Amino acid sequence: MIEQYRWQGGFPKIGIRPTIDGRRRGVRESLEEKTMTMARNVAEFFSSTLRNPDGSPVECVIADTCIGGVAEASAAAKKFAKENVGLSVTVTPCWCYGTETMDMDASIPQAVWGFNGTERPGAVYLAAVLAGYAQKGIPAFGIYGHDVQDLADNSIPQDVQEKLLAFAKSGLAVANLRGKSYLSMGSVSMGIAGSVVNETFFQDYLGMRNEYVDMSEFVRRMDEVIYDTAEYEKALAWVKEYCKEGPDNNEPEGQKSREAKDKDWETVVKMALIARDLMIGNPRLAELGFEEEANGHNAIASGFQGQRQWTDHFPNGDFMEAMLNSSFDWNGIRSPYIVATENDSLNGVTMLFGYLLTHSAQIFADVRTYWSPDAVKRVTGYTLEGKAAEGIIHLINSGAAALDGSGEQTQNGQPVMKPHWEITQDEADNCLAATSWRPASTGYFRGGGFSSDFLTKGGMPVTMARINLVKGLGPVLQIAEGYTVDLPEAVHDALDKRTDPTWPTTWFTPVLTGEGSFKTVYDVMDNWGANHGVLSYGHVGADLITLASMLRIPVNMHNVPEEKIYRPKVWGLHGTSDKEGADYRACQNFGPLYK
Ligand SMILES: C[C@H](O)[C@@H](O)[C@@H](O)C(=O)CO
Ligand SMILES: [Mn+2]
């Protein structure tokens, strides 16, 4: 029930615009069917391939008629506005009149597929209209099939499919962010700059709003019983059955009594319910007489300050953050909520990017230690090998990493992190079984609580990313594709015990290119822009780059092969030999999407 409530506003749709040569008495008539067929096929392709965050198929809206001139362009725009279209794809097999048929909505991502045939000049239209987009300052993605197709061939070639998908995936992410909130629960944690929420960034670059609640709201809701007590009982019983408590790593004098720990469990379960209700609301609260609280904050992501005021006195937020970020809880398998620990809103947004592109849960972590092969050898006697041979980065933070990060979901025997609709109950159970809940380090967390402890399985392709803000420049995105790696148990133990072994660990190694910030693993660590990073499942750097270009966020570091990079056509008009510089120039030239 809470899941249905969460997504009740529905999802943005993809608008499809068949444009056509407007000349009647023969030309237009001969093209109508082919053009509309292209539109229908693209719509069918999207709806059968792409999913919304709840797992339902993405919907497309096709203009009522082919668009041969401005009257039909404007009729399509009106239809799109009514139907919640969040991105637009123009398709055509022929010459049409560029500025008369183009979609002029500068606030949504735009793409144009010009059919590569030669009976009719679709590619000429593509070039003409993209010149129009450049001139008018609306960056649009061009899709031009590599090989000539016959006019009668209604298939979508593989390379065109890839570009359509790359555009639509990122375009949908842009559209899903728009109009939502980031909810700060508390404010700045331990002076972490990412938790100084920058409203201009959220508003201008993401189209989002910032909401804030003081952490005292948790106390009020606990004391005044502003949560669904039936759900609380269910959640607590589930925790007792599935969340096994791990050994207490505190010195005896720092350990809490059994009674105090049991009380902490009650508190952390309530915190999880309350944080979720704060984010998205809960219709049960209205039935219980709390109509205002039932509304929530329309938050697609949130952050919890925790340290220090809360955690110096109350149990920490680790259970709440880890469970909400996972793809399952006491209500079963469901889409993850996005909650940033330490209210690091910039990591929170990076998690959102990863989540909206992959629909899988995210691993939030401190980028804690670069372990060179020599240092590992000195400390453990072990020689790093395989993918880890050049060195590894220890990703570890209390809270926030989704339990999916244990790597207990599988595909063809390999560990993966799946969208929630592909996860089986056994896989969810295995993630829980691989996680122990360790009494929090009371040196750091005087109020106690429980930290999730798991070790990520090696062999998963992952992408680490992070947004940083630079005064005078704005946001920049950094991306490092790589792999999770396994270490022999004794080696992991020796390295882990030098940190806080009650927290989840992921051993990560980036793919090196031999150049720039990817010359060595050390360089990747050395160029990381902040204390935190996000791991998303898969090599999704190219998608992140496309998404960043839509939002005009330049990418300051990545190891994505050049042939996979897809940005608006006009990026090339800012320079073609120095692509990184061209990206910066284009982002600066056009400025944020919602300025
Ligand atoms: C317990 C500590 O304060 C940690 O939370 C700290 O190392 C961080 O995570 C900093 O990002
Ligand atoms: Mn941290």
From TrEMBL:
Name by which UniProt lists this protein: L-fucose isomerase
Origin species: Paenibacillus mesotrionivorans
Top-level taxon: Bacteria
Uppermost EC category: isomerase
Key words, A-Z: Isomerase
EC number of the protein: 5.3.1.25
